[in-house]
Here is the input.
Amino acid sequence: MKVGFSYPRFRQSNADDVALRLHPIVPINTRIAIVDTILPLGGGADGKSPVFVPAGTLVGYQIYVMQRRKDIYGEDADEFRPERWEMLRPGYVCPTSPWFSVIH
Here is the structure.
């Protein structure tokens, strides 16, 4: 007797990617630095200098806002355009993406 459930394979579509980009499940998040850390960007007058984050510091970030950056997604960042994702390789994260510093 086989026990358990069988689920059909789910392939996330470009439309799903755009929907989650524009309406993230977790729109705001925080992290606590457990060791002294240096973030590569965000400091200085232009925001392009490193930032020192001492251990114990709470760092918040808004995914909702990050996913609407016109400097990354273009002037139509707020528009639902699934074709925006067609040229990306699976698993690729652009170094200019706001996610790059969060996941690397």
Remarks:
- The chain has a mean pLDDT of 78.
